[in-house]
Amino acid sequence: MTARAYRQIARANALSETRRRIVLAFWDYSQTRWFDDITLEEVATRAGVTVRTVIRQFGGKQGLVAAIPTYLSSEETSSGPATAADIDLALDEILRLHEERGDATLRALAQELRHPVLSAGLATDRTAHMATVAKTFSPWLSRFAPHERQAVLDALIIATDVYAWKRLRRDMGRTLGETRAVVRAMVKSILENTPQASAA
């Protein structure tokens, strides 16, 4: 490798790292604040760059919002949803994700109309939740006839949705344990509505 090629690679790596720091600095602020309340000066200071650099790389706040999904996905190391051995393990994983990212997701949903650039990332989140539910509950879903399976899956997706978590944890002030118990009761009721259970 020539010295020039090495310098070009080093510059590209440095630029990539700078962009990553800027986006994650903005994301950190967005966990507790509305996008409109976050200033580029704050983002630049946290990322260790100038405001001019932020603008040059992303054009402004809308560019930062649009870049969030890409940089968040690069930070996540999870191998994806796994099939659960029992209902409790399935719920533990789903509720863990809500506890970690539920508030940020709800804040993004509340700003979607004002910042349409959020829509793509939120659509990805919705698809990921549906895939997680389908995978983790697949042993139970397989007991249903094909024409029933989708309706059961839809019910499970709603019962474990971030809005159900919000209603219990934030609106009603329930503890995580109490929330888990309510969601578990709903999930069990859905899964027990099988032809076998009805016949019994």
Walk me through this protein's architecture.
The structure is a single chain. The protein is mostly helical. It has two domains: 73 residues, Tetracycline Repressor, domain 2 (Orthogonal Bundle); 113 residues, no CATH class. Helix content is 75%, strand content 0%. It has eleven helices and no strands. The C terminus is likely disordered.
- Average pLDDT works out at 87
* Structural class designation: mainly alpha
In total, the number of strands is: 0
Number of alpha- plus pi-helical segments = 11
Number of domains: 2
Strand content: under 5%
Element order: H for helix, E for strand: HHHHHHHHHHH
C-alpha-based Rg, rounded: 21 Å
How far the N terminus sits from the C terminus, by CA atoms, comes to: 73 Å
Major sheet attributes: none
Q: Globular, elongated, flat, extended or rod-shaped: what is the shape?
A: elongated
Helix content: over 70%
* Low-confidence regions: 196-200
Task: Summarize the SSE layout with pairings.
Elements: H1 3-30, H2 40-47, H3 51-58, H4 61-75, H5 87-110, H6 119-136, H7 138-141, H8 146-159, H9 162-171, H10 176-191, H11 195-199
Which features would summarize this protein structure in a list?
single chain, 200 residues, mainly alpha, 75% helix, disordered C terminus
